[in-house]
Amino acid sequence: MTTLEAVCSKVLERITPGEEERERVLSLAQDIMGRLRALLAEEGVWGEVRLEGSLAKDTWLSGEADVDIFVRFKPDVPRRFLRTRFLELAREATEGLKQVERFAEHPYLECYADGIRVNIVPCYAVRPGEWLSATDRTPYHTEYVKSRLDERLKGEVRLLKKFMKGIGTYGAELRVGGFSGYLCEVLAIHYGGFVEVLRAASRWRRGIVLDPAGHYAGQEREATELFRHHLIVIDPVDPGRNAAASVSLEKMALFVLAAREFLRAPSETFFFPEEPGPTSQEKLRAGIRSRGTSILAIHVRFSDMVPDILWGQLWRTTRALSNMLKNEGFRVLRATAWSDEISNCVLMFELETAHLPPVEKHVGPPVWLEEHVERFLRKNAGKPDLVCGPFIEGDRLYVLKRRRWADAAELLRERLKNGGEDAGVARLLAKHIAEGFTLLLDEEVVRLSEGLKGFEEFLADFLLGRPRWLARRS
Amino acid sequence: MTTLEAVCSKVLERITPGEEERERVLSLAQDIMGRLRALLAEEGVWGEVRLEGSLAKDTWLSGEADVDIFVRFKPDVPRRFLRTRFLELAREATEGLKQVERFAEHPYLECYADGIRVNIVPCYAVRPGEWLSATDRTPYHTEYVKSRLDERLKGEVRLLKKFMKGIGTYGAELRVGGFSGYLCEVLAIHYGGFVEVLRAASRWRRGIVLDPAGHYAGQEREATELFRHHLIVIDPVDPGRNAAASVSLEKMALFVLAAREFLRAPSETFFFPEEPGPTSQEKLRAGIRSRGTSILAIHVRFSDMVPDILWGQLWRTTRALSNMLKNEGFRVLRATAWSDEISNCVLMFELETAHLPPVEKHVGPPVWLEEHVERFLRKNAGKPDLVCGPFIEGDRLYVLKRRRWADAAELLRERLKNGGEDAGVARLLAKHIAEGFTLLLDEEVVRLSEGLKGFEEFLADFLLGRPRWLARRS
Fold it and tell me: For residue range B442-455, what is the model confidence (pLDDT) as tens digits?
């Protein structure tokens, strides 16, 4: 047995649910489905109660079961019913469990039983392509996958999912921007196994098109034009959908790199990442001190944002503030965000330095544009911030001027003081920033880990900057 | 009389040679020409001795006479004769005057009589287009200009030349990269007068084509393709030559700007620039101290370089070192050079700062390129200069590394220590740099003005950075 086979078989053993766990989870599912069926019958509404998701397809991971129960309604059932009465029935069916209402396109119910998440989701029974809501595809996905998986392939899907989780590319949610469970299944089916997916991914290129069901046979160029994405996987049950639309370029690249690394030196680390190990605040402080860069963190408290909304706001804001800093002359080395997804989030920026030299060069118009030249000359006339010029280089005018913002912390404080929407902060987040935020610089950032659970590990990972599974070359 | 007319007429009075000066210069010319004719007759070589240049065309400026004497030989006279025996005859004809041998395409003699420069230049009598040497065109230029200038236009040419001198755009030599005397004459003839040239230039655009003799009538696009230059003035006596080839984009732009400024507010300052006024070394030092930028000067001693060679080397080197500094992360605000054209030159750089933060971001390959990725990972493995990463952004790998050169002075010293040819220093200059150079930083630069005549004024102008004629807007 090769190392590769040995690693896979050991991992598979750890992640395949045993009989006892299967029975426990399935009986929980049957239980709720039974109650739901009875309640719907009582109500006199026809709805097909079905088990969906990884549990239905037998591709779930031991210890990480999700129970997805779908109720499929006829198209003539009004949406209003789904939004109101249906949710009441779902609550009744899961009475006694911890319940959270969630919103996708329409609301659904999420509950927790014994650490197992149960989702109760309504959808419509329609023919492929005549979708009334985003969840209408799910039963077709389930049928497609079930019809193509044998026992071996189920294990291959499990390996791929666990690998994706381990390296941080699993999940279509905005926080991750990665591969959905369904996409993992489609890839395993398409390539015929876990290692086969990795081998293929090692050679992926930006813009690759996979079309497992052959919807575009011979016309892949059309798919490229239609979807315009770095990774296109035509949904086997819907030629009009890219099943990989959620995968960001970063996560696609990260998966490709990890696939190659794993094939080069197979190890369980990829599936079960090592914990960062205990870091002390003093060690983090020393790390930042000796680093020589400037780290800026903006801590904001928020409320009433579900994760996908929150992360949309965070990513957009990080990008916008990063560009704002760059436009003012700061060299931004990295920018990212952290959140507990409940009430705290932190925007993080690492700069070459937070303190720029006092003078910068301003580019003016080409001399040919008389009106622009006149405006430029007038704008820079006798201003106290003019250091040198105007002078000509090539065919343009230039001046040297005192820099308006030489201190990044000052700049951020000023731009964010009213929420920062003008500076590109996303609207919902701006509302919370306007109510208050804390700006921390360098070693001060470590203080955040006192109040924020999980931030210390995030900060340690941020300082390291390298995927833990990336083997050091000698 | 408008201000414009008043200024022009006052200037014209100052720059038009009076009778006494004319006689003195012309008799000097006739004197030398007579001796040269006699010597050639004695030698038994036929050569037409002619007065050329601004003196022949009567477009010279009072106090700035140049006597250009050309000897036109039949094409069968060997080049060897021009290079050797002819020079001996020229020396004999100017015996008693201070003599310097110069090289253009072939050697010529330059002498000084009473502060007046006399050039004795050989050329061939050939038909237009059948040029044997670069100077063969000159007699045709003289004929062309003489045939088109009346008394009024001669004054217009004088105004244009003096204006060009005043704003620093006069001269085809590499130091200036500006407008030759002949080009000034062609422009004045083409547009019909000094103010007319300025009015037209105010509206010039990059790539403009002027074709006074109509060689390309209706086919200006061909001229654009043929010459590929920002300013194309087809030589009236040679359709294959751009008479404005020597004009750099900077000097073209400077002339356009000055033309507009002068028309907007006519003043003698444009023709007779104010002297910078006395600056003390202490004042210069204080100016640099309070400025907030970093100024670096490299002082080099040289020998055996005529000005056009020297300035070619200086401009190329300034550009190369500027790029080298930029590639290492320094923000170069300005770069220029100074020389006494005898034995001292100074390369000058102004940077935002000469001291960069210790860490920088290095971009690696896109993950798709497996071999490049492997090389990048190996290169950055376990090196003590690795600060963070490798990490992925977009589809590329990056690392944060200790900066190799955080100190610009150190970097320059290291790169120049063997002359700097690897760093792009032009070859002849590199030879001199290898023998030794002095690197000065900020206030130290002022020290150079103690030994170098003219450097103090240059430095004062450099710090100001603005053309003195550029009116401050309110």
Answer: 999 999 999 999 99
Where are the domain boundaries for CATH 3.30.70.590 in chain B? 281-355+406-464
Q: In chain B, where does the domain assigned CATH 1.10.1410.30 lie?
A: 149-273
Contact call for residues A29 and A83 (beta carbons, < 8 A) = no
- What is the CATH architecture assignment of A17-145? 2-Layer Sandwich (3.30)
Vertex B226 angle, CA B223 and B227, to 5°: 85
> Among A205, A292, A397, whose Cβ lies nearest the Cβ of B358?
A292
- Give chain B's mean pLDDT: 94
What topology is assigned to B359-402 in CATH?
Alpha-Beta Plaits (3.30.70)
- Tell me which residues of chain B, numbers 196 to 225, contact chain A at a CB-CB cutoff of 8 Å: 202, 204-206
Q: Is the pLDDT of residue B105 over 70?
A: no
- The percent of residues above 70 in pLDDT, for chain B, comes to 99
Q: For residue B84, what pLDDT is reported?
A: 87
In this complex, which of B249, B357, B389 lies closest to A465 when CB atoms are compared? B389
| Tens digit of each residue's pLDDT (9 = 90 or more) over B313-345 | 999 999 999 999 999 999 999 999 999 999 999
Q: The domain B149-273: what is its CATH number?
A: 1.10.1410.30
CATH 3.30.460.10 residue ranges for chain A:
17-145
How far from the centroid of its chain's Cα atoms is residue B449's Cα? 23
Cβ-proximal residues to B18 (8 Å cutoff; 6+ apart), any chain: B62
CATH topology of domain B17-135: Beta Polymerase; domain 2 (3.30.460)
**Domain made up of B281-355+406-464: CATH architecture:** 2-Layer Sandwich (3.30)
Sorting pLDDT into bands at 50, 70 and 90, what band is A104?
low
Interchain CB contact of A417 with B (< 8 Å) = no
- Residue B474: its pLDDT value, please? 67
DSSP-assigned letters across all residues of A143-188: HHHHHH--HHHHHHHHHHHHHHHHHT-B-SSTTT--B-HHHHHHHH
Structure tokens given for B454 = 């003219």
pTM assigned to the model = 0.88
Measured between alpha carbons, how far is B335 from B332 in angstroms, rounded to an integer? 7
pLDDT exceeds 80 at position B71: yes
